[in-house]
Amino acid sequence: MKIHRLTVQAAAILAIVSLLLSACSYSNSDQTASSGEVRIVKMTQTASNITADQHVTLQKAAPVIINNPVSNYDIPVIDFVTDNTGFAVKEKYGESLTLIATTDGGKSWTEKKLPGQFVRSLDFIDSNTGWLLIEEGCSLKNGMTACSKLRLLKTQNGGTAWTTQWQASSKENRIHSFTNLRRLSFQDSKNGVMLANGNLYVTSDGGSHFKATAFGLKDFTPLSMSFPKGQTGYVTGNVGKDAGKLAVLKTSNRGRTWQKQLEIKAKESPVSSLGIQFMNENTGWLLTNDTGMMSGEIYRTIDGGKHWKTMSTQRTGRPTPTDIQLADADIGMISLHPGAGPIEGGIWLTMDGGKSFTSVAPNHVTAVNQLQMLSADHIWAAADDMNQSGYLLHSSDGGRTWKQSYPKSVSFGSATPAVKKRIYDALQMEGA
C-alpha cells in the first residue's frame, strides 16, 4: 500500500477510514512505532462500554504510540514480583477499585473488583500474597476530597479474595496534590511495615497486629520510607511543627530503635521529602523539596547512611517527581507528573548517580505516577494521558524504547478482510 502526502482530499479519506474501523475487533497485539509509520487504531474498553477512535497518525522515530479510550481512570500503583508476574490498581472517582494482574509479562491481564475508592499503596511478595491500603467513605467537601476510613487488606490467592487486617479513621493529609504511594513494605509473609495516618506501624504476624513506632525524636512526622532488606530500614520526615527541618532516620532492628543520620534545614520555605529509596542496605537516594522554590536536592549514600553527598538540584514542581527507583549506585529513574501543567511529565534517567538526568519518556506520555525497575533494563511505568486514562508501559532496554502493555491496542491488521478491502480501496482512490 503506497502512502501519499496528506492533502485536503486525504483528510476526507482519513475520516472514511476512521468510520470503517468501527467494525474492527479487539486484538492483543502490542503497539510500537517506527520512523515514518502510519497506524490506524481503535481502542475499546468493554468493561465500561466506552470506545474512542483515533485517526491515522504519522510518527517519526516515536518509541511508542499511546492508544487509550476516554475512560477517565488512573493507574496510581504498580508492583511486579518477577519479570512475568505483576499487579496494578485502577482508580476511578465514584467507583470501586479494580486489580489488574499478569502472569506472562503483560501479554495478557485479568481484572478483579476491589473494595475502596482510593488506593494508598500496594505490595505483593509473590504471585499469591499481597497487601492493599485503601481509603473509603470518600466525598467532596469544600472542593476537596475527604475520606472517613483507612483500611489494610490482605490476599493469599492472588487477589481473588481479601481480608481486612487493620482499619482506622482516615487522617491522611490531602493538602498536597501528590502523596507518597509507597507506604507498604513486607519482607516476607510475616514481617512488614506500613506508613499510615502520620505514623509508621510494624507487624510481625502478617498484618494481624501492628505496633506504632516511637522514633525518639520530638515532633517528627514520617513522610516516606524504604526497607531494603531484613531488619534495616530508613525513614525521612519533618522535624518541628513548621516543617523547618528534614531528617533521615535509620533502624537496624525493624523499628525498635532509630538513629538520626542526616538533618537538613529549610532555606526560604518549608522543606519536605518527595521520596527515599534504597536498593540495598548501603546504597540509597533522598529527594528533598523546597516547597516555595519548587526545587529540591538529590542526596546519595553508598555506605548505609554514614555519609550523604549532594548530587544535583532538580525541579520539584510542574512537573512534580512522584517516584524514585534505583537499579544500582549509578543508574536510576524519577517519574514526573505535571499537576496543573502546562509542562508535561515524563521519566528522567540518570547514569551517573543523580548528577545529571535525561528524559526517556515515550511520546505523548503526560503523567507518570509510579515506576518499578526490576533491573537496569526491565522497567515498568504506570501513567495517565491527557484524559486521565491510565495505561502501563514496559521497557526491556533501559528506557530506550517502550511498549504499551495495558490496555491492549487494536491494530490495522485486526480488521476483518472486508473492512481491510474497503480501507485499501479508499486509499487507492485518493491516490488516483
Automatic annotation (TrEMBL):
A Pfam family found in this protein is: PSII_BNR
Please tell me the species this chain comes from.
Paenibacillus dokdonensis
Q: Which residues form a coiled coil?
A: none
Task: Name the InterPro entries for this protein.
Answer: PSII_CF48-like_dom, Sialidase_sf, WD40/YVTN_repeat-like_dom_sf
Where does the UniProt annotation place the signal sequence?
Answer: 1-29
Please indicate which superkingdom the organism of origin belongs to. Answer: Bacteria
Does RNA-binding show up as a keyword for this record? no
Name this protein carries in UniProt: YCF48-related protein
Keywords assigned by UniProt, alphabetized:
Photosynthesis, Photosystem II, Signal
Q: Which residues form the Photosynthesis system II assembly factor Ycf48/Hcf136-like domain?
A: 180-317
Q: PANTHER family this protein is in?
A: PHOTOSYSTEM II STABILITY/ASSEMBLY FACTOR HCF136, CHLOROPLASTIC, PHOTOSYSTEM II STABILITY_ASSEMBLY FACTOR HCF136, CHLOROPLASTIC
Asked whether the UniProt record includes Transcription among its keywords, one would answer: no
